[in-house]
Design a protein that fits this description.
This protein is an alpha+beta fold. Helices cover about 55% and strands about 10% of the residues. The protein has a 4-stranded mixed sheet with strand order 2-1-3-4, with helices on one face. Helix 1 (about 10-25) links the parallel strand 1 (about 1-5) and strand 2 (about 25-30). The longest helix is centred in the middle third of the chain and has 29 residues, at about 90-115. It is globular, with a radius of gyration of 17 Å. It starts with a strand and ends in a 6-residue tail after the last helix. InterPro entries: Glutathione-S-Trfase_C-like, Glutathione-S-Trfase_C_sf, Glutathione_S-Trfase, Glutathione_S-Trfase_N, Thioredoxin-like_sf.
Length: about 210
């Protein structure tokens, strides 16, 4: 059975949990990093799985893999779900483009304001940094809004793909963070559209930001 290592409150762990639901893949979730002293990420028992001391990690019948977006691609490919991760090079590249945009552009923008305003983490109390993060986050959400205006459905077109798992969770985090949200009608409609998906309700719009 597939083992998913990582606390289920982590946005990156929830990507893998949601995809496993879409795949109808049985799994066990081991909540490493949840605060329990026996499940700290810097323990030798975990470092053997991921030397970066981060979640998620999967163990798929002895094959260990880390990095959430790599895990999404691997699971969809090995379970032969071309609807979620197309085989045609151009269609696959479009999905990869938006998954990578989520990781390299969108995620770094929300880190500071999210940790300051939701997690209230020590050291994240600089008002200027919060404002700068919110401004950048809003700018990127406008990019997403333009894309969704074009597709009128999902991130890459009229079909749900891996890109919607990665970006859908980020959209939930956007709405769950107490900041001023510019009116982005296409993003709002997308959020409601995703909410008809059982996996999103369970692992995305479930009260966890």
């Amino acid at each position: 059975m597939l083992s998913i290592l990582g606390r289920p409150t982590s946005i990156n762990v929830r990507k893998v949990l949601w995809l496993s639901h879409e795949l109808d893949e049985p799994f066990v979730n081991e909540p490493w990093g949840d605060g329990d002293a026996s499940r700290k990420l810097d323990t030798p028992a975990f470092v053997v799985f991921n030397p970066n001391k981060m979640v998620p990690v999967i163990d798929d019948d002895g094959f260990v893999l880390w990095e959430s977006n790599s895990i999404l691609r691997y699971l969809a490919a090995t379970r032969e779900r071309a609807d979620l991760y197309p085989i045609a090079p151009r269609e696959r590249a479009r999905v990869d483009q938006w998954i990578d945009w989520q990781a390299s552009d969108l995620n770094p923008a929300w880190v500071y304001p999210f940790k300051a305003l939701v997690r209230q983490a020590p050291g994240y109390d600089d008002d200027g940094m919060i404002a700068a993060g919110v401004a950048r986050w809003s700018e990127l959400m406008r990019v997403l809004d333009q894309q969704l205006q074009s597709t009128q459905a999902f991130v890459c077109g009229d079909r749900f793909t891996l890109a919607d798992i990665a970006i859908g969770l980020a959209v939930h985090r956007w709405f769950a963070t107490p900041i001023g949200h510019p009116p982005l009608d296409a993003v709002a409609a997308y959020y409601e559209r995703l909410s008809s998906n059982e996996g999103f309700r369970r692992y995305g719009r479930n009260g966890t930001p």
